[in-house]
Design a protein that fits this description.
heterodimer; A: Nucleotidyltransferase, domain 5; Nucleotidyltransferase, domain 5; 5-stranded mixed beta sheet; B: alpha/beta; 4-stranded parallel beta sheet; 18 helices; 10% strand
């Protein structure tokens, strides 16, 4: 007899097999362990003992496997078998002839290649792509269904939406807007499963084709028929999910020969006597005594906003505020004194419309005589709710929260709001929002993470957070994203941390995330880093553990309003009051109309431009429509309405680049040369185009990026943590090969043009050497000429000769003289291109000034003009009425100046110069685009921020990846405009005052 | 006197914060400071650095190696360094601030030293990240000294003299030899501790020799190296088959136990023989890059020939090391740099020089050729050059060398040991299976 125990991240699996009967499974068990590995294992072993399958004195081999099994095996002194290794052993024995295994577990994804060229190869997800089973659970929770429901629902799907597949947190920020737009839940479910497939296939196949006999293993693939279907469709084959697909790891572990044997009783004894090491990194307790806690409670209970039920007969004026947040919907109604007379706080559970409807119904029946004077809505669901119920005003979240906090504490100078999905912080200086910090997509989900984790332990969030209050040794879980936190928790459990310690540790890590990742403030001087009067809000702060952790971490007391979770709605209501005239009446939907309220959703694909956005069309009673999912204003514009004149330098740059595609008909004695439009090729396209044209080539440029182009190259990406612009190149190479271009040119460029702005003029390592990655990983290139020489464009004199030498290998007939001439024209074309951008920038700035528009310097790097990379952020800013210019259109206006960083990359030097120039122009503001995973931007963002802040400008950063969700971006940009607007009004008022006085 | 000093500190401190002014004020490290200041140096390679500080002391710098570890190092790093910056920066700066916090040093007489390679990778910016962090932490008055060979930070850089440079090179070569031999002897020694004793004996002897100005000439290096190799070869061993594992990667994470969760020790405890290519190759690589730049893009012939002198010298010292090992059968010596360079032909270009550049790829191949086909490629999470030369090349290397069993492992404050070790164990399980199958 042999026993195998598979301790996964969420489940415990065990088998007893009989080697005498061809490894027949005599006993099997599968259950969730809720982190109580020791207890559950003991119960399991007792069950085996009682079953009599293994004799009382029979000696068996016993092996432990699984991602959470390693520490456990060490503790009890039983041998460990690595789980992927075990899987392979089981597949080879039970399903000989299999070519490939795809196994999804709670938090791991694995692909095993068993046959074929390249031999045995095993791939496990890297630390960044963690969470598959857990990811599906998390998404199910978000949708308010079970994983089984999700599978069932997916059967009825009609279309697939694009959901980022890099990691759970990103996917979540794509799913949320879909929910808020009103997309069909069936379609969302199928899209989530599709994202899991993309993540697995794209992230793990890395250039190796999944084909032949494919085996599906693990919980999610066993239980979800639709997930298997999605895999089948993507891989274009029919995979097998064998009998006992849950137990392959356990079987493989059991089959592994072990020198030592045990009786079941001996194993039970070993487990019983095991003690965890208890040496996890821990932090001081949140509260040392009940008394500490009582004092703390008493202090915070004093921060109160009144809430009164005015009764059925109340007939005063009322102002409504709705906060349709990412995970909760909050509503508040206030009277003219700002007293809350009605409020509600509920989980979003997928669709905010019926929740707000119910709120209004309840309100109308509670206060049948009240007169609604005005209403405002804020949050992710602002647009849909506003349209659905004809609510008078929309307001950006940041302003709503500030309005609420100010009412509460007029001298507030720092607000931090930790909601379900977002952390928002803002500093207030002289009564205006001075600086806004919003979390990046990567650390989002901080509040809802507590929720999900509590759910995983079968607890309510309130109970779960309470557990931590008096934990003696809270676990130090660091301040990383939720996926990382999951594995930190795993590690802590392995080391014997109690649920209490973990609960406290999670509360602390939420706080650390906010402080060190979002605000990034030095806490040696809290007053200058944050402020003197700090107000904390958001539902997450209603947990005393989180609040205490926050106060402890900054070493100061803060104010938490009793309505911390309602502040958005309360602020919106206050805003509605501010915006209303003395006798204004709200146009909000009436009780009668509410009775016949209907809401239907249709998904369509927009055909107005090449983006082909997936739109959701919501139709409400009376024919009101709301369209979501659009990336520009075109589909929502009324017929006949013409676009306002736009000044967008991003579009202009694309036009210039488009001119660098050689026409098809023409005389091209040297044939075609293909250039992939990405990374360093972007800005240098005019350069190479002129050179190759001069040499008689037809320059074939890969098409503009889009989603399917990205997907087509995804399988050859070797590093899943490289920046998105680099990943896109793979698609461009595929596109060129599909176009049949035999010769593809993509040079390695250590150095860029020397613009004399810094101490050196490097490209970043990824931009410089990505051609090497292409050459080493795109196997199809074997049938093409991939020309990727190392070239030094920074030395124009040497360049012509070196380029000629490099090309000689492929084109021996090229003469040095003709190359020299072509190269000269290349440099000319490049400088002409840069001059054109600068001239156009000047023109747009003048136009903006003439028309009184805001000027936004949308700064990034040349490849950020790619619409698949910038996701249309440039157009979004234009839609809001501003003029968009680029960093390279103004950088030349600033002389070289000393920076606090080593200024050594050409593209990044422009950021510093542009920022500096911005500080000299009152009507110019800078927004920095940052690619997720860009290591260099860890340096540039801090520097650009300090240049701007020193120049009394607001710094706005937008981190972009494959995500297509513009919701968070919109908040940032709208907040920026709101602040600028406030400033303008204040200045105008000041001028007025001065005029009055003078 | 003390009062005025404090005044200066207060003055500098009060305007050292961010936000109020753009340029971060920093004190240059002056020649006068040399006499009075204790200079704290981060540790990367225990054996090498212990000897290196003796040479730096001889050159007139009062250096001290940082040995503080523990969770507060990472905590301080996370507090004061941009969290998306690379892990080595976060650790080194965290370690320094933690040391300044410790109360062990007279802060009015303490300076910090950090290396700068001057390449296109982020690492050249560490000194600026350090200064920003110091200003944030209220230590704006602590001077920072840059150690580089690129002419950066002219005001505050370590002043190399030719003799010091030669000595430093000798020390690094000694370090490589001791590490290399210890790695090959320790897993097989019959009496536990024998190999470690040889290391201790030689580090002690060499250190006291250095203080007396001995053991640093080429002749002495040759003699000593022969003796060191003989001492190791004399340790009684039993060569049982073991899984042979190699470590390559970003230089700090590859070597520093603080950064890689004691990777070499973990592998040793898993029953492996571990090989991690030495630092001489890296030095040669960095020097060679300057010549390679001129080859590829053009440039001054004079500069080329000056660099060539240093390059040739390094090669000579490396050859002495190689000779001393090769004279004992059964031991594996590093491949000469010129051969190493040939290994990547057709795989990656010599122009890829940022970070560890093509050398990292070459080291993977070297390890495979020498029988260490189970390879861990250790890098900081999101390391830019490693997207190219590490992870980016694994596939190609595997195609050419199907035996290669390579696992890339990311290190950062959020990556847990359990996940890292699990992936390494998978690699080792395959390694063990192959060892049983064909003795490789």
């Amino acid at each position: 007899m042999k026993i195998g125990l598979d301790v996964g991240s969420t489940t415990l699996k065990c088998v007893v097999i009989d080697e005498a009967k061809n490894n027949q499974i005599l006993f099997s068990s599968y259950e969730r362990h809720f982190s109580q590995i020791k207890e559950k294992t003991l119960a399991l072993l007792e069950k085996i003992r009682e079953s009599g399958i293994v004799g009382e004195d029979e000696r068996v081999t016993f092996s432990i496997s699984g991602s959470a099994g390693m520490g456990f095996s060490e503790n009890i002194g039983i041998p460990f078998v690595q789980e992927v290794y075990a899987t392979r052993a089981a597949v080879n024995a039970l399903l000989p002839g299999s070519d490939c295994v795809i196994e999804l577990g709670g938090e791991d994804a694995k692909i095993l290649f068993l046959t074929g060229a390249g031999g045995l190869e095993v791939r496990m997800n890297g630390s960044c792509a963690g969470g598959t089973g857990a990811f599906i659970d998390q998404m199910a929770t978000l949708l308010g269904v079970t994983a089984d429901d999700m599978d069932e629902l997916a059967k009825g799907s009609e279309k697939i939406y694009t959901i980022a597949s890099r990691c759970g947190v990103f996917a979540k920020s794509d799913v949320q807007p879909l929910i808020n737009q009103g997309a069909r839940i069936e379609d969302i479910c199928a899209s989530i499963l599709n994202a899991v497939v993309n993540q697995t296939v794209g992230g793990l196949s890395q250039g190796r084709e999944i084909k032949g006999k494919v085996v599906y293993l693990g919980g999610p693939l066993t239980f979800m028929s639709q997930l298997r279907r999605q895999f089948d469709e993507t891989l274009k084959l029919t995979g097998v999910c064998p009998e006992n697909s849950l137990y392959f790891v356990a079987v493989g572990a059991a089959m592994t020969p072990q020198p030592k044997t045990y009786t079941v009783a001996e194993v039970i004894e070993a487990v019983n006597s095991s003690r965890a090491s208890n040496n996890y990194a821990s932090l001081p307790p949140l509260f040392r005594s009940q008394r500490d806690y009582d004092d703390f409670k008493a202090r915070h209970d004093a921060d109160k906003v009144e809430s009164v039920n005015r009764g059925q007969d109340f007939d005063g004026r009322v102002f409504l505020g709705v906060d349709a947040g990412s995970t909760t919907v909050k509503c508040a109604a206030i009277d003219e004194d700002g007293v809350i007379i009605y409020s509600d706080y509920r989980p979003n559970s997928g669709n905010p419309v019926p929740i707000v409807k119910e709120f209004l119904e309840n309100f109308y029946s509670s206060y049948p005589k009240a007169k609604i004077a005005s209403g405002a809505v804020t949050g992710y669901g602002e647009d849909i709710i506003r349209n659905a119920f004809r609510i008078d005003h929309g307001i950006v979240e940041t302003i709503a929260h500030f309005t609420a906090a100010k009412r509460f504490r007029p001298d507030v100078d720092f607000i931090i709001d930790i909601g379900g999905q977002d952390i928002k912080c803002f500093k207030i200086r002289n009564g205006a929002i001075d600086n806004i910090f919003l979390n990046e997509a990567c650390s989002s989900g901080c509040g809802s993470f507590l929720q999900t984790f509590a759910g995983a332990l079968n607890m309510s969030i309130v109970d779960f957070a309470k557990l931590g209050l008096f934990a003696e040794n809270p676990v130090d879980l660091g301040s990383r994203c939720t996926v990382f936190m999951n594995s930190s928790v795993k590690q802590a459990q392995k080391d014997g941390a109690s649920i209490e310690s973990i609960s406290a540790g999670l509360s602390i890590s939420v706080v650390k995330n906010a402080l060190y990742k979002v605000i990034r403030a030095p806490l040696t001087n809290v007053e200058s880093a944050l402020g003197r009067h700090i107000v904390v809000q958001g539902g997450t702060f209603l947990n005393d553990a989180v609040l205490r952790a926050f106060e402890t971490e900054i070493g100061e007391n803060v104010v938490r309003p009793n309505i911390a979770g309602l502040m958005g709605a309360y602020g919106a209501a206050l805003y509605a009051m501010q915006m209303s005239g003395e006798d204004s009446v709200s146009g909000i939907i009436t009780p009668e109309e509410l009775k016949t309220f209907t809401h239907t959703v249709k998904a369509v694909t927009c055909g107005l431009c090449n983006n082909h956005c997936r739109l959701t069309v919501n139709t409400f009673e009376g024919g009101r429509r709301y369209i979501g999912g659009n990336r520009c204003e075109r589909p929502v514009m009324k017929k006949g309405q013409s676009e306002k004149k736009r000044y967008n330098l991003y579009e202009y740059k694309l036009e210039l680049l488009d001119a660098c595609r050689s026409p098809e008909n023409g005389s091209y004695p040297r044939g075609d040369i293909g250039l992939p439009l990405g990374l360093n090729i972007y800005e240098m396209l005019p350069f190479w185009h002129a050179i190759f044209s001069g040499l008689g080539f037809r320059v074939v440029v890969s098409p503009m990026s889009n989603r399917s182009l990205f997907i087509s190259g995804q399988h050859t990406i070797p590093s899943d943590t490289v920046c998105f612009p680099a990943k896109l190149i793979h698609g461009h190479i595929e596109a060129l090969m599909d176009m049949g271009v035999k010769n593809i040119f993509y040079p390695c460029l250590t150095y860029n043009f020397n613009e004399e702005k810094g101490e050196n003029h490097y490209n970043c390592p990824v931009v410089a050497y990505y051609p090497e990655v292409i050459a080493a990983n795109v196997t199809r290139l074997a049938d093409f000429n991939f020309i990727n020489p190392y070239l030094g464009i920074h030395r124009p004199k040497d360049f012509a000769v070196k380029f000629w030498q490099a090309m000689n290998e492929y084109y021996p007939d090229l003469t040095q003289k003709e190359v020299k001439t072509a190269v000269d024209s290349g440099y000319k074309a490049y400088y002409a291109y840069m001059d054109a951008i600068r001239a156009k920038g000047k023109e747009y700035i003048e136009a903006a000034r003439a028309e009184g528009r805001e000027i936004i310097v949308l700064s990034g790097r040349p490849y950020h003009v790619d619409t698949e990379i910038n996701h249309g952020i440039d157009r979004l800013i234009c839609d809001l009425g501003a003029v968009v210019i680029t960093e390279d259109s103004i950088a030349y206006l600033e002389d070289r100046f000393p920076t606090n960083v080593l200024n050594q990359w050409t593209y990044h030097a422009r950021l510093y110069s542009a920022a500096k120039y911005c500080t000299t122009q009152p009507d110019m503001n800078l927004v920095q685009l940052v690619s997720f995973g860009c290591g260099v931007d860890a340096i540039t963002t801090d520097e650009v921020r300090s240049i701007l802040e020193y120049g009394k400008k607001i710094y706005t950063q937008i981190k972009i990846d494959e995500i297509t969700n513009l919701g968070a971006v919109k908040i940032r940009i709208r907040s920026l405009f709101a602040v600028l607007d406030m400033e303008k009004r204040k200045n105008a008022a000041k001028k007025g005052e001065m005029a009055d006085n003078g | 006197m003390a009062e005025t000093e404090n005044d200066i500190i207060t003055a500098v401190r009060s305007d050292g914060g961010e936000g109020d002014q753009y340029e971060i004020h920093h004190l240059p490290f002056t020649d006068e400071m040399r006499k009075e200041y204790t200079i704290l140096v981060p540790n990367m390679l225990e054996i090498h650095f212990r000897m290196l500080i003796r040479v730096l002391k001889q050159a007139g710098y009062n250096v001290e190696l940082l040995t503080n570890t523990g969770p507060s190092v990472v905590t301080e790093g996370l507090k004061y360094v941009h969290n998306d910056a690379c892990y080595p920066a976060l650790l080194v700066i965290g370690q320094m601030i933690d040391a300044l916090n410790s109360g062990k040093y007279d802060l009015s007489k303490t300076a910090l030293m950090i290396t700068q390679t001057g390449g296109g990778c982020r690492a050249s910016n560490y000194i600026h990240m350090l200064r920003k962090a110091l200003a944030k932490a209220g230590y704006g008055y602590i001077p920072v000294l840059s150690m580089n060979l690129s002419g950066l930070e002219k005001e505050s850089s370590f002043k190399w003299s030719l003799p010091t440079l030669r000595k430093a090179i000798a020390v690094l070569a000694y370090g490589d030899l001791l590490m290399l031999m210890d790695n090959q002897v320790r897993p097989y020694e019959i009496s536990s501790g024998d190999s470690a004793n040889v290391v201790t004996k030689w580090v002690d002897r060499l250190c006291s020799d250095f203080d007396a100005g001995k053991s640093l000439s080429t002749r002495e290096v040759r003699e000593n190296m022969a003796k060191i190799a003989s001492d190791f070869a004399a340790v009684k061993i039993n060569r049982v088959p073991k899984v042979k594992a190699g470590i390559v990667g970003e230089i700090y994470v590859k070597y520093s136990p603080l950064a890689n969760n004691d990777l070499a020790e973990f592998l040793y405890c898993q029953g492996c023989e571990v090989m991690s290519p030495g630092i001489m190759g890296f030095m040669l690589f960095k020097v060679d890059n300057r010549m390679e730049d001129i080859n590829l893009y053009g440039g001054s012939k004079l500069k080329f020939s000056v660099v060539k002198i240093l390059f040739d010298y390094l090669n000579r010292i490396e050859q002495i090391l190689i000779d001393s090992v090769s004279s004992h059968p059964g031991f594996i010596a590093p491949m000469p740099y010129a051969e190493l360079k040939q290994l990547v032909k057709g795989i990656i270009g010599w122009g890829s020089k940022m970070g560890e550049g093509w050398l990292l790829t070459a080291e993977m191949i070297e390890l495979i050729k020498e029988g260490y086909s189970n390879i861990i490629c250790a890098q900081p999470f999101g390391c830019l050059p490693n997207h190219i030369v590490g992870k980016g090349m694994v596939r190609k290397v595997r195609t050419i060398y199907p035996d290669a069993n390579i696992v890339p492992i990311d290190y950062d404050p959020g990556a847990t040991r359990v996940n890292q070790e699990n992936r390494i164990k998978l690699m080792l399980a395959i390694g063990r299976e192959r060892l049983e199958e064909n003795g490789k």
